[in-house]
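user: Kindly work through both lines:
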Amino acid sequence: MYVITVEFTIPPEHLAAFMPLMLENARISRETEPGCRRFDVCRDPVRPELVFLYELYDDRAAFDAHLAAAHFKVFDGAVKAMVASKAVHAYELASA
C-alpha cells in the first residue's frame, strides 16, 4: 500500500472556504477512485490552521491517477491561493 500524508497551513481567513472544498475532494476520491482506500481529513484542535491528510492507495499508480483526476485538478486550482504552506510525504505501508 502507498501512503500519502499532507500538512496544510491555511490562514484563518480562508478556513471557512477551504474546508468544504477539502472534504468534498476527499469524499469524491473515496467514492470514485478504485485505488483510493482511505482519505482522512484531520484538524489540529489547538491550531485549527493546520489541516492534515492521511491517504491510502493501492500503489503509486493509484495515487498518480488521483493527481490526474478532474475533481482533484479543480480542487487544487480552487484552493491554491488559500494555502500558506503544504508539505507532502509518501510512504510504503509496513506490514507486521
Observations:
- The radius of gyration is 13 Å.
- Strands lie at 2-9, 36-43, 50-57, 85-92.
